[in-house]
Description:
Elements lengths: L1 E4 L4 E4 L7 E6 L10 H19 L3 E8 L18 H9 L3 H18 L21 E2 L4 H13 L3 E3 L3 E4 L15 H6 L17 E6 L18 E3 L1 H13 L3 E7 L6 H13 L4 E7 L2 E3 L14 H6 L4 H9 L7 E3 L1 H19 L16 H12 L5 H12 L10 H15 L11 H15 L3 H13 L2 E6 L2 E6 L3
Parallel strand pairs: 3-4, 3-10, 4-5, 10-11, 12-13
Antiparallel strand pairs: 1-2, 6-7, 7-8, 8-9, 14-15
The structure holds adenosine monophosphate and zinc ion.
Adenosine monophosphate binds next to helix 1 and strand 10.
Amino acid sequence: MRLYNTLTREVADFVPLQPESVTLYTCGPTVYSFYHIGNLRNAVFNDTLRRSLESTGYTVRHVMNITDVGHLVADEDDSVLSEDKLEKGAKREGKSVWEVAAHYSEAFIRDMAALGVLPPTVNPHRAKNSAADPYARATDFIPEQIEMIAALLEQGYAYQTKQAIYFDVEKLADYGKLSGQTLADKEVGVRDNVVTDAQKHHPYDFAIWFFAVGHFADHSMRWPSPWGDGFPGWHLECSAIVHTLLGDPIDIHTGGVDHIGTHHPNEMAQTEAAYGHELARIWVHNEFILVDGAKMAKSKGNTHTLKDITDKGYDPMALRLLYLQAHYRSELNFTWDSLSAAQNTLLNLYAWVDLKHQTNLSEVRLSDDDISSFIDRVMAALVDDLASSAALAEVFRLSTSLAPGMTYAIEDFDELARKLDNLLGLSLSNRSDITKEQHQIIADRESARAVRDWAGADRLRSQLAKHGLELSDTPNGPRWRRTTT
Ligand code: AMP
Ligand code: ZN
């Protein structure tokens, strides 16, 4: 497998720390609103990475967090005058922060299932041994975060003011190595109108613990700590969760490109300072989604959710296919037209795998290749820094190269669909047949055609259209294709 590492700025062969298993950590959602198509791209990118690693033969130990505390609206500055996103969501919706977190976590988990995104593999509920969902919530790791703060304070990497405990970025020589931006570079960009804690040593020092005082006196999520009641800063949870559930260093850490500047450097800094080694060997980031060529913003009304997409009649898999058609490191411009095109392509792929239900499969075969060499080519594309569009091109080539008079076994077809699903997650396998009644209409139409009853045959074709089935006549008999997924 070859992967682009943001840290070294090059594509290199991936060699895990353990020969057969890979540790993977993914920064997850802040559950104060629905995931939008940008966040969903990140989820599908992670999932493609995970599936590619597993198909290569690795056992992947995958952890993803859910941020349910500490992520401030102004996390760039860590301003103690900012607001926790969860508290903001609670005010907006007249609910408790816990209700808001539960509501959007459930929505997120439903979206993941609809998009065919595999859940994390490491159970974060280790003490409770619960069968609850496998996402690691920040609020379930408060003692571990407090332990990390203690280690950072003890080793002189953190200091306390009246309002917060901060990580002292100047103590770490290579802070900012991920973005290649030194502290001096960053300082030029510091906004001087942001009022923050006057006791802060450096503008880029970030809070690892906020005290429930001043602006945060009414903060509803709070825990006791040796230094005073409060709540953890956003960056800390990822370092603490990795340390607890996977053990650092891990092999691969992922996120969107927006994390290269602040969140990931801060995660790195915490782990390096507390434990004396790096957090992750490889950092992989997905590029952003644009909508109609513009940045997404709530104010523009273009932050579409999966529900917006399904409400318009699109299948979540059409969105997944749209993502896979682009490389994860390229910006992807979302338009409704591009989603329509992806849905049509998906229907073509489904029509291809639905061939196994058609009366006569004898004309179907895999050109000159056998299944394994085809799957090998799809895999070869994916393991080349997740070239998903090249992998799909192989699939399209195969699905459109069916020629009359060739043989192909139904079992092979099932195996092929299953293998492709393992790699691409597009739900090509286990598709149901049409109903007996629909098969009968097709048979009746054939009978009508046999006696040259063209009007009757057309009527039956229209009847099939009402069932969402499109019919075409081939030298080998009629073929149906679904017009909806
Ligand atoms: P958040 O809930 O804002 O922390 O975002 C969850 C994930 O989605 C993070 O990995 C972000 O980097 C990623 N992300 C946020 N916005 C976009 C976008 N417009 N395009 C692609 N990924 C995004
Ligand atoms: Zn993170």
